[in-house]
Amino acid sequence: MNPTGVYSDLRGRTYHLCELDDAERTLLQEFVQYANDHPDWGEYGNFRMAKIGEFYAARGLDRRQTIATPLWRISQDIGSRLLVAAGHARAPDYRSDLDHLIRENFRTRREFCDATGISEDMLSHVLAGRKHLAIDTLSQALERIGYRLQITPRP
Amino acid sequence: MSSEPARECSFFISILRDKQLADGEPHTAEAWEWLDQELFARFGGYTIAPGLYRGCDTDPHTQQRVDDESYKFIVAVSPEALERLRDLLRQACVEFAQKCIYLNIASQVEFIEATSHESNGSV
Predict the structure, then answer these.
(1) What is the pLDDT of residues A73-129, one digit of tens each?
(2) Phi and psi for B44 in degrees, rounded to 5?
(3) Could you tell me how far CA A119 lies from the centroid of its own chain?
(4) Minimum Cα–Cα distance from B43: chain A residue
(5) Do A129 and B22 touch (CB under 8 A)?
(6) Whole-model pTM?
(7) CA A104, CA A126: separation in Å to the nearest integer?
(8) Are A101 and A147 in contact (CB under 8 A)?
């Protein structure tokens, strides 16, 4: 990993590693090395949890502040990649993006449905993985709330 | 601050979504990330037991045998925070599309069920 490069997570979000300080970059390198040597998600997770909690507690950050740091998110994503590689999780797709959008921007699923015109029943099936939305239906729904579909390179 | 010692709690999360509630497929990475950060934020950390745990149970609704593989999580929780762990697991039932979650609190077993599978946790 290039210490001054860009880290792109499974959802395509990017993190500029130059914004981490030296100690954070060193810890990130430790996480990357550990994940390479120990591809078991649980083993990596235990290592990461102990390290990162201690690291930010020493800087006076509380837990909620810690989980908002780029290093937390990047190190979490490294773990997620281990899970996906083992076949124990699936990479994010449009349904998880949709779920994330609803959580971030609407108080309830109903509120989202009212705003987009998608029925609650259909949304429930889609988020549970039982049905898919047609691209034009999804595009029109997103258009109503100021979003659009985009094709991006696979992380 | 409670004078009583923390209780060792463990619970299992199947690696697959329930076939009736959802599609029986693996969870998204995002669901595991949610659990990771909530356990850290609410309880300060946790341990994942090594490997996967194979088990079988009877579906309370269909009475059919269900085989699954799960991750086991271990967390130390003070007595006054136990209800917060139950709340988290009720939410986890929704996030992970599970009918119930097996919770062991200092060798006392409980099955935690979601309040509603349509509430979608914090939404």
Answers:
(1) 999 999 999 999 999 999 888 988 898 899 889 999 999 999 999 999 999 999 888
(2) 85, 0
(3) 26
(4) A63
(5) yes
(6) 0.85
(7) 18
(8) yes
Q: Is the Cβ of B22 closer than 8 Å to some Cβ of chain A?
A: yes
Using the Cβ of B54 and the Cβ atoms of chain A, whether some distance falls under 8 Å is answered with no
Residue B73 sits at φ, ψ, to 5 deg, of: -110, 140
Tell me the C-alpha distance between B6 and B77, whole Å.
Answer: 5
Q: Running DSSP on this structure, what letter comes out for residue A17?
A: G
Is A108 in contact with B123 (Cβ distance < 8 A)? yes
Question: Is the CB of A66 inside 8 Å of chain B's CB atoms?
Answer: yes
Distance of alpha carbon B85 from alpha carbon B73, whole angstroms: 12
Q: Which two tokens stand for residue A127?
A: 């988020």
The Cα–Cα gap between A63 and B40 comes to 7
**Do A42 and B50 make contact, defined as CB atoms within 8 angstroms?**
yes
* Euclidean distance between CA atoms B114 and B49, whole angstroms: 24
The residue to which tokens 């499974």 are assigned: A10
Question: Tokens 């693996």, residue?
Answer: B26
Q: For residue A25, which of A82, A79, A70, A81 has the smallest C-alpha distance?
A: A70
Q: What are phi and psi of B101, to 5 degrees?
A: -125, 130
Contact predicate B53/B12, CB 8 Å: yes
Q: Which amino acid is at B73?
A: F
Question: Which chain B residues are closer than 8 Å to A81 by Cβ?
Answer: 29
Identify the sign of the CA torsion A12, A132, A128, A107: positive
Residue of A nearest to B117 (CA): A124
Confidence at A49, pLDDT banded by 50, 70, 90: very high
**Rounded Cα distance, B35 and B32, in Å:** 5
